[in-house]
Design brief:
heterodimer, A: mainly beta, six-stranded mixed β-sheet, about 0% helix, B: seven-stranded mixed β-sheet, four-stranded antiparallel β-sheet, 11 strands
Chain lengths: ~110, ~110
């Protein structure tokens, strides 16, 4: 059974701090890794994807991938109250199948 | 730019009634299409995916079915709803070919079966 694990949280950080969200996956053959943001009652919104080991930066967001450790993370710098949401980690295991984690709830306190 | 539509936004149905949810994509051709269900506080469960007209792959055995009558139209159906069918139904698309399969979601349909 291919799995994607995330800490459900909630993760609470003060405004302006760095929020660190983590994810582990079980399938070593996974190729692409995605982070989605989901506000309460809304559909997921793609933030970033990464497919090579290392860091990928996009504005205040940095995705980090370590395939040897089967670990993906998302860093949010200068966190804002508007970043408060559930963050879903997703892993493309091939064959059009993407496995989603259950998500980590993030609260950014003003 | 690409846009994905889903309707209805919310639906309340009695047990045993039929279901039809529709999803359409604009601004792209030959997309891969997906139906997911999200139960309260849970992750997304892939129900069906399609890589072309008339091509449907089912991931979970259940009383739901899917069809793709046109390139950018994807329909989720049931003949008789169960209580366990309640949830947030999401349609998504991704580009075919050499993409990394990043998926983009529609606004979703919240289904309550009573």
């Amino acid at each position: 059974q291919k799995e994607v694990e995330q800490n459900s949280g909630p993760l609470s950080v003060p405004e302006g701090a760095i929020a660190s969200l983590n994810c582990t996956y079980s399938d070593r053959g996974s190729q692409s890794f995605f982070w989605y943001r989901q506000y309460s009652g809304k559909s997921p919104e793609l933030i970033m994807f990464i497919y090579s080991n290392g860091d990928k930066e996009d504005g205040r967001f940095t995705a980090q991938l370590n395939k040897a450790s089967q670990y993906v993370s998302l860093l949010i710098r200068d966190s804002q109250p508007s970043d408060s949401a559930t963050y879903l980690c997703a892993v493309d295991t091939g064959g059009f199948k993407t496995i989603f984690g259950a998500g980590t709830r993030l609260f950014v306190k003003a | 730019s690409q846009t994905i539509h889903q309707w209805p936004a919310t639906l309340v149905q009695p047990v045993g009634s039929p279901l039809s949810l529709e999803c359409t994509v604009e601004g792209t051709s030959n997309p891969n299409l997906y139906w997911y269900r999200q139960a309260a506080g849970r992750g997304l469960q892939l129900l069906f995916y399609s890589v072309g007209i008339g091509q449907i792959s089912s991931e979970v055995p259940q009383n739901l079915s899917a069809s793709r009558p046109q390139d950018r139209q994807f329909i989720l159906s049931s003949k008789k709803l169960l209580l366990s069918d309640s949830g947030f139904y999401l349609c998504a698309w991704s580009a075919g070919g050499l993409s990394y399969n990043e998926q983009f979601f529609g606004p979703g349909t919240r289904l309550t079966v009573l």
